[in-house]
Write a structure and sequence with these properties.
366 residues, alpha/beta, Rossmann fold, 7-stranded mixed beta sheet, 4-stranded antiparallel beta sheet, 22% strand, globular, binds zinc ion
């Protein structure tokens, strides 16, 4: 590895869902990332530190409608909560990406088109039980009592839609090979083991578009569909790194990229995202660090240290009793649920699934 590539360090937080109010969980992850980046800078690394907001999807569309706003107006308002909070906490991020930005729309569409052109995205149909708040299909085997979402406990709706699918199954052997050669690619080791054994059990093709909502990035060449919000959101890490617009920057920082993610979203980050990258001919990230554990829906949250041991004063806390931080600009409240994409966010990973995936016990992303 050439000298200059050893000296770069690219760290991302999850992008936080603008439908949420920032709270201690967002702050925890972002401060942890900030500390890591400041340390690397002190050690002489050329650091890129990215955070941002995830602004598409059904929940934003619904929430905006309830408030009598357009989704963009809602996002423009709520993104300020995050921007102001990071300023108040003196977070040293180099970039702040919003998934509604033009640079991101172009990147997502270019990637979608490339994968379509090379036969890795195809059109199909899916019918299944869907949780609107979690934006996730739930297999019958994973449903709660009375057809409820196993994560948020709300009633599921039967939905059918045409969808584009990403041929994720094709790349599983290559990702397994990558993980077998890179034992520290997912940390801690317990999560690495979980991901590897999940991959070995097989991964189904992923639905990557929706016709049931409008608030998203249009699929290139097919305006009836918008790109599924997870597929859209994961690409932010590449957008901000210049995947489309600045190949020099991209070449400099990729794959020296480290993603801090919550346990809930590790399959998106450690299965779907690396497979997307492999399909694009790009190396997967150097490190994926699922750091936080959230048992979801008002149950215990455990904040764990690097070796998986509860931190001394961060241990198990009730979500409802998280300490209230001072509220710069009135922005902070202890939230009921954290983000999509952050520690403890949308618990849509384990029991849910994307369209087109026949029920399976433990699908990659849902
Ligand atoms: Zn749900």
């Amino acid at each position: 590895m050439p000298e200059n590539s050893r000296k770069t360090f690219y760290l991302t937080t999850p992008i936080y869902y603008v439908n949420d109010t920032p709270h201690i969980g967002h702050a925890y992850t972002t401060i942890a990332a900030d500390v890591m980046c400041r340390y690397k800078r002190m050690k002489g690394y050329d650091v890129m530190f990215l955070t941002g907001t995830d602004e598409h999807g059904q929940k934003i569309q619904q929430s905006a409608r309830e408030k009598g706003l357009t989704p963009m107006e809602l996002a423009d308002r709520t993104v300020l909560n995050f921007r102001e909070l990071w300023e108040a906490l003196d977070i040293s991020n180099d970039d702040f990406i919003r998934t509604t930005e033009e640079r991101h729309t172009r990147t997502v569409q270019a990637i979608f088109r490339q994968l379509m052109d090379q036969g890795d995205i195809y059109k199909g149909k899916y019918e299944g039980w869907y949780c609107v708040p979690c934006e996730t299909y739930v297999p019958e085997s994973g449903m709660g009592d009375d057809k409820t979402c196993p994560d948020c406990k709300r009633p599921l709706q039967m939905m059918e839609e045409e969808s584009y699918f990403f041929r994720a199954s094709r790349y599983v052997p290559r990702l397994l090979e990558y993980y077998e050669k890179n034992l520290r690619a997912v940390m801690p080791r317990s999560r690495y083991n979980e991901i590897v054994s999940f991959l070995k059990s097989g991964v189904r093709d992923q639905s990557v578009s929706r016709t049931t909502l409008k608030w998203g990035i249009p699929v290139p060449g097919d305006d009836a569909h918008v790109v599924y919000v997870w597929f859209d959101a994961l690409i932010n890490y590449a957008t901000a790194c210049g995947y489309l617009d600045d190949r020099e920057k991209f070449g400099k920082f990729w794959p020296a990229v480290h993603h801090l993610v919550g346990k809930d979203i590790i399959r998106f980050h450690c299965v779907v995202w690396p497979i997307m990258l492999l399909a694009l001919g790009v190396n997967p990230p150097d490190r994926l660090r699922p750091r936080l554990v959230d048992r979801g829906g008002g149950q215990d949250v455990q904040v764990k240290g690097q070796r998986g041991k509860p931190l001394r004063d961060g241990g198990a806390v009730r979500q409802g009793r998280l300490p209230v931080l001072p509220a710069p600009g009135g922005a902070l409240r202890p939230g009921r649920r954290l983000l999509r994409g952050g520690p403890g966010g949308q618990n849509q990973l384990r029991p849910c699934q994307r369209p087109g995936q026949p029920p399976q016990q433990d699908p990659p992303d849902g």
